[in-house]
Write the structure tokens for this entry.
Amino acid sequence: MTGGPIKYLKHKLHVIDDKNLVTKYSLIEGDVLGDKLESITYDVKFETSANGGCICKTSTEYHTKGDYVFKEEEHNEGKDKAMELFKAVENYLLANPTVYA
């Protein structure tokens, strides 16, 4: 997206398990890491739900530089931005079911 707050991101994929619907990847470069974070590792798992949809479970591991301690407020800010992205993708897929069928 041109003009957005993020200039670039570089990820490294560790696991893509189609059978168990699990993905593990790390953010290893990017301006969002700033001078306090070395990398961020994400574990994502999709599980079926009783209503016919799915539940996305994620965990995030922050790897800091030096002795910096990552604050909960910083995590919550990142979590809120991630939820915005997930909602945008969900809305797009619900409106366009043929793109994943």
Notes: The helical segments are 72-95. The chain is about 25% helix and 40% strand. The first helix runs from residue 72 to 95. The domain at 9-68 is CATH 3.30.530.20 (Alpha-D-Glucose-1,6-Bisphosphate; Chain A, domain 4).
